[in-house]
Amino acid sequence: MPWKIEDVDQFKKDLTDKQKEQWVEIANSVLESCIADGGTDEDCAPKAIKQANGSVEKKSITVEKEIRNLPEELAEVRASKDSRTIEGYGIVFNKESRDLGGFKEVILPEAIEGIVEQSDILALLNHDISRGVLARSTKGKGTLSLTPDNKGVKYRFDAPNFDLGNELLENVRRGDIKSTSFSFSVSGGQKWDKLEDGSYLRTITKFDEIFDISPCYREAYEDTTIAIRCLDEFKSNETENVKPPVEEPADEPITEYKLSDDERFLRHGVLTFKIIKHDTT
After folding, report:
1. pLDDT tens-digit profile, the chain (281 residues)
2. Is-contact 69 179, C-beta < 8 A?
3. Angle (CA) 142 147 153, round 5°
4. Given the DSSP bridges, would you call strands 190-194 and 200-204 parallel, antiparallel or unpaired?
5. What is the pTM (predicted TM-score) of this model?
6. Helix, strand, coil shares of the chain as percentages rounded to 5?
7. CA neighbor of 28 nearest in space, from 46, 1, 8, 6
């Protein structure tokens, strides 16, 4: 001890890399605090493990997904004529979205850094996992290839040789499937700005996780619930940070009066002395 990421599987199975990092942070913090209070390693370790397991469990339950669409001109979904390869773009960088319900959104290239390598990403049709999985990228490896470039994240996979894969391949070739959407989560990796025209811009600087990239017949319902909640919080903070105008105190009326000679001397700090010379002779 302290614990490392490779130790986590001993105590908690099936966690993502992100959740393992959270587990290690919580467990080591609890352990350090317990020992500082006079506990021993034997007494403190079980408490730290129990708290880390419970905390990560709660965090995993509260993971919320957002969905964004790429229209035909950006997604570029296509199928090879000579093979079963499907390819297109699932994410596009530095491109301002349409209005998403009170705000627009842009994704920076650094938002994807390290995310493919720690995520379990599926290729689905219309985000519908009940119909089966077309391809899969687990920590950057598998049948789904995800490659960031200057434009965005390009996906590529071979349509599987069963009904779902055949349906996808045929309909991409026919032009019936043209768009792509993806689902993701983001928490601290976002920045909000109010623009000069009064609208709002959300800049995604870091995804927490990418869940799936899905070719679609029609654009999926874009779930912006989480983003709008963050926007409301941003607006609330804006209101709290606006300071009310400071009112200048009203000038008091000036009362004119005439100063006596003594008052005038005192007001100006003038002292007068009369020197008398005594004759001692």
Report:
1. 689 888 989 888 878 777 888 888 888 888 888 888 888 888 889 988 888 888 776 555 455 789 999 988 899 999 988 899 999 999 999 999 888 888 999 999 999 999 999 899 999 999 999 999 999 999 999 999 999 999 999 999 999 999 999 999 999 999 999 999 999 999 889 999 998 888 899 999 999 999 999 999 987 767 777 777 788 888 887 776 655 566 666 665 555 555 555 555 555 554 444 444 555 55
2. yes
3. 120
4. antiparallel
5. 0.63
6. 35, 25, 40
7. 1
Domain ranges of the chain: 5-61, 66-240
30 contacts 47 by C-beta, under 8 angstroms: yes
Helix, strand, or coil (residue 97): coil
Beta-bridge mates of residue 106: 203
CA distance 180 to 218: 9
What does DSSP assign to residue 153?
Answer: E
- HSE-CB of 110 using CA atoms within 13 angstroms: 5
Contact 21, 5 (CB under 8 A): yes
